[in-house]
Specification:
The complex is a heterodimer of chains A (398) and B (371). Chain A is of the alpha+beta class. Chain A is built from 13 helices and 10 strands. The chains are: A alpha+beta (398), B alpha+beta (371). The interface between A and B is large, with 50 and 47 residues.
Chain lengths: 398, 371
């Protein structure tokens, strides 16, 4: 047992911290700190700063322009980035699609698409869920029929996060209806400028529209945009999901949220004393902190096992459940800390305006929208119920 | 013991249910809010015509109800339909204060309130005061026959839609209330939407000049009346939350039966059945808490306030559970603005931010029960 970091790891952390303090634009950090909405330009700016340093793709091999960090380095970067209020890196191209292309794509696909993910020329989104296929993803119905050297795609995807910014979508489509549902799925790359693709935003409970419906009406997709073999897409989809679940614990996010919460609680007077001295409130904050301290170690135990060559399997389900519940609890506490000031809905402020006339503390306007938005954590990426089923089957053998 | 509603209240509930089922729809409510309106004035006058506002006042105040069970019956139905019309501001907050404290002249407003012709709002909360109703720093100073008020108010429910406002201020260390018209010079009011679709306002009083005749109640009466009014308002929003919980439950049970994944309705999965069963148990607890408070609304203040805090604490806890579980059991669809559930979830969540949250009321309950 050794709970410490190596000298090299400590030096790496120092380097990361210095980079963030020098390069992270203050205006973007401020938006992230206050839970304001980031524009497409904000996200692209941060991506290009990271790419310039060679740190945009920590998980990619150097040969493709990645940083090729090990899992502990990635963990350190996540923690420091969250600590500095850096926005999260949009994962769809970088951590979801790219590993699939590296493992199952053609050389031509890798040459064409990987560099454009780094430069930001392409913004990818994920076409997995459908209205009738959520937790039961393999029930998807979007149809792709081969017609000469094109697939003709018809159907609908939903919950497509940041699809409004995207120009490419990777999709699971049904290419065979005669076989078991998992065996008739293919993995297609679709240019969203192709005629017949329509994106419709979905306004959510927080008043924002970060997810979309994507409709396909006789969309012609060249066969060279098929990844791997036809009807083998489920294998690639599952491989992608294992990458979707890296950093699933969100320890860095929880660290940052806890720090914000403690700051707010110490500076909010309730009943004549700081909220941090209210025993009922303080007990919940302390319990969240204690859970986070343990989860940091749980997370490191899992990722360091993976570092020695063992893939994190069902253990990532454990991290997903505990990590998302903790993040949700922290947003619930921040909302509660805002008191009555959580009530006003101030979209201008959330879109980047100032707080001059809200007459509430700076964290209050985003407290309720942030709480509502984070309800998604236990729903997406395989709901927490699905994760519990994975644990019962794969670890408990029930 | 009799846990059945009286014949009159059952009729009141049935009439209100009929009006709301015919006239109130989620789509219309969404369209209205998207248009920037705070509420539908026609609906408010239909509610008044039906006697809903009158039911919040006793016969002595020209109404025909005014008890805890009248408030509970009405607000449960308002909550079940997601009603945003200002019944709380007008007939519970503003109306109750005038009924308790008003002079004969001031009490003329009650008839206008009951008939839906006048909207009145209570401007009491101040920035930074959170849930402490004694935390008032706006200042009222006598100047000859007039009184001059300076200060800021926040979270004024329907403040920008009101014709009259009741403002509180500190005068010679005592909290005093004044009844002022919205057009009075020195009063500036800024409207904002709330997260749950209701409307609030911020209010600035700059050398707001009122006459002594505009004072509502004598010196030393305001805090007692405010406490009694808060008890009524907390009963109202607790019953409203109960209605919203029932609506969220109904939507979720229907969804569990209809939504199919893995070849069967998801309601066939035992884990979801058990969670829904827990939600049902907690909603029944919430109903009992509302009944407890309704039955003690006119009890002596200490006993009343013990029930106020017990009920508001329990409603806050159950409200969060119901909102979170209903969304989770729905999945993504439960988070969409287009679907009614997200609106019930927002209202349930925000009710915990009104008149004291679970932490505030558990602390108050401990103080009251150990005193």
């Amino acid at each position: 047992m050794d709970l410490g970091y190596t000298t090299e790891q400590d030096a790496f952390r120092t380097m990361v911290r210095a980079f963030l303090s020098e390069k992270l634009p203050a205006s973007i950090a401020e938006k992230t700190r206050l839970g304001k909405r980031l524009s497409k330009a904000d996200m692209e700016t941060w991506h290009s700063i990271l790419n310039e340093k060679g740190w945009l793709a920590p998980n990619w091999p150097k040969a493709y322009g990645g940083a090729e960090w090990d899992v502990v380095q990635r963990q350190i970067f996540e923690e420091e980035a969250c600590f500095a209020h850096a926005p999260r890196v949009v994962p769809f191209g970088l951590t979801m699609l790219a590993p699939v292309l590296m493992k199952y794509g053609t050389e031509a696909q890798r040459q064409k698409f990987l560099p454009r993910i780094l430069t930001g020329e392409d913004w990818w989104c994920q076409g997995y869920s459908e209205p009738g296929a959520g937790s039961d993803l393999a029930a998807l119905k979007t149809r792709a029929v081969l017609d000469g050297d094109h697939y003709v795609v018809n159907g609908q995807k939903t919950w497509t996060t940041l699809g409004q910014h995207a120009n490419w979508i990777f999709c699971l489509v049904r290419t065979n209806t005669e076989v078991k549902k998992q065996e008739g799925i293919s993995f297609l790359l679709i240019d969203m400028k192709t005629p017949g693709v329509v994106v419709r935003p979905i306004t959510l409970i927080d008043g924002d529209a970060e997810v979309n419906e994507v409709f396909f009406d006789n969309v012609r997709v060249p066969v060279e945009n098929l990844v791997g073999e036809q009807d083998k897409g489920w294998t690639y989809a599952k491989y992608l999901l294992t990458h979707e679940r890296t950093n699933i614990a969100g320890v860095g996010f929880s660290d940052a949220a806890l720090r914000t919460l403690k700051h707010v609680a110490a500076n909010t007077i309730a009943g004549g004393k700081p909220l941090s001295r209210n025993p009922h409130f303080a007990a919940r904050v302390a319990q969240a902190e204690i859970d986070l301290m343990a989860m940091r170690t749980t997370n490191l135990r899992v990722v360091s096992a993976a570092a020695k060559g063992q893939a994190p399997g069902a253990e990532s389900s454990m991290l997903k459940i505990k990590g998302t519940l903790l993040r949700q609890e922290l947003t619930a506490l921040l909302r509660r800390a805002a008191g009555p000031d959580a009530m006003p809905y101030l979209p201008d402020y959330l879109e980047g305006g100032d707080n001059a006339d809200s007459m509430g503390p700076e964290h209050a306007p985003a407290a309720a929208p942030g709480y509502f938005n984070m309800r998604k954590l236990s729903i997406f990426g395989g709901s927490n119920e699905i994760q519990r089923t994975i644990i019962s089957k794969a670890i408990l053998d029930l | 013991m009799d846990f059945n509603l009286s014949e009159e209240r059952r009729m009141l509930r049935d009439m209100l249910q009929r009006l709301l089922s015919e006239r109130y729809s989620h789509d219309a409510r969404r369209k209205l809010l998207a248009s920037g309106a705070a509420y539908d004035t026609e609906i408010l006058s239909e509610l008044a015509d039906l006697g809903i506002l009158g039911a919040m006042f006793s016969e002595a105040d020209n109404g025909f109800g005014g008890t805890g069970f009248d408030i509970a019956v009405v607000f449960e139905e308002l909550g079940r339909s997601g009603v945003i019309e200002p019944v709380l501001a007008v007939a519970v907050l503003g109306g109750a204060l005038i009924a308790q404290l008003g002079t004969d002249t001031q009490r003329h407003l009650i008839d206008q309130i009951i008939s839906g012709q006048t909207v009145i709002a209570l401007a009491h909360s101040e920035p930074g005061a959170r849930y402490d109703i004694g935390d008032v720093s706006s200042l009222a100073v006598a100047e000859g026959d007039d009184i001059v008020i300076n200060g800021a108010k926040t979270h004024v429910i329907n403040g920008a839609q009101a014709d009259h406002l009741i403002v509180s201020a500190r005068m010679d260390t005592e909290i005093v209330l004044f009844l002022v018209s919205k057009d009075t010079r020195g009063l500036s009011i800024v409207n904002h939407a709330n997260v749950d679709g209701t409307s609030g306002a911020r209010l600035q009083m700059t050398d707001l000049r009122v006459s002594k005749a505009q004072q509502l109640g004598g010196h030393g009466t305001a805090i007692t009346a405010l406490n009694a009014t808060m008890a009524r308002a907390i009963l109202a929003v607790s019953a409203e939350a109960l209605g919203a919980m029932e609506a969220a439950k109904d939507l979720t049970v229907t969804y569990l039966k209809e939504r199919r994944q893995f070849g069967m309705p998801i309601g066939k999965f035992q884990v979801l059945q058990h969670r829904m069963a827990d939600v049902l148990i907690e909603i029944e607890q919430a109903r009992s808490a509302v009944i407890n408070l309704a039955g003690h609304l006119d009890a002596e203040p200490k006993l009343r306030d013990l029930h106020v805090s017990a009920t508001k604490n329990l409603i806050g806890r159950v409200g969060a559970l119901v909102a979170e579980e209903a969304i989770q059991l729905h999945g993504g669809i439960g988070m969409t603005d287009e679907y009614a559930l997200s609106h019930f979830a927002r209202r349930l969540t925000m009710i915990d931010h009104m008149f004291g949250d679970v932490d505030y009321h558990i602390e108050r309950f401990i103080q009251l029960s150990s005193a």
